[in-house]
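Q: A reviewer asked whether we had any structural model of the full assembly, not just the individual parts. We don't, so I'm hoping you can provide one. Inputs are below.
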Amino acid sequence: MEPLRTDFTGYEGKYVAIDARTGEVVLADEDPQVVLEAAKNLDHVSVRGRVPYPSEPQYVGLG
Amino acid sequence: MASADPGQLPWVYPYREDPQSTRLGQPVFRPFVLISLAAAARSTAVLDGLIDTGADAILASDLLAEQLELDLEDHDGETTHAVGGRTVTARYKTVELRLHPADPTGSRYLPWRAQVGFIGGWHSYSFVLLGSVGFLDQWTVTASRFAQAVAIEARDAFDERFGILTAP
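A: Here is a predicted structure for the entire assembly that you could use as a starting point for your response.
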């Protein structure tokens, strides 16, 4: 199975929601509650979380 | 929303790219499944839940408790964890969790109840970590980085596949 790919470029520091069929970012905001609220009742969409900056360390689990 | 028939399992989810750029020049893919949380008449958006076999419990950002209007002062219990060189406190509440298929439409999910440890100052790529108690004891989870997918089956599927194991 092909993994779901997402281009997170340009969303660093923002919280994002993703189209589960395409991997495309469909919602993004610096305020997580904005994304969590906007994604409610949207079909095909799931909220991922915050996109880190490239300089941030790679976390494992909770980090 | 309406719940789904457990007979529809297994549900298979492709590994998903992590927003962290790369590891050794290669993309990072992780085993996520789609879940939401609910309490009383409120529910969260569908979330990418990261399967973490090294975690003992389900842990989540307290932002989700805000979404559910939970009073974390009235918790079931709290535990302090040492994580990444800092200390965090998880305050546990029992909520409904809903497993959604890989393409969530809102009309299909499988519900169960479990304690979730809500943490302030959450620091992870997804809002939820799905650990042993509450998740891996509810479902048989098969993750394959080779197949780049994770499959969720009923929790009895493991015994049906391998038999009931006794200590060696």
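A: Points you may want to mention in the reply: The mean pLDDT of chain A is 90. Chain A touches chain B at residues 1-6, 8, 11, 16-18, 20-21, 23, 32-33, 35-37, 39-52, 54, 56, 58-59, 61-63 (CB under 8 Å).
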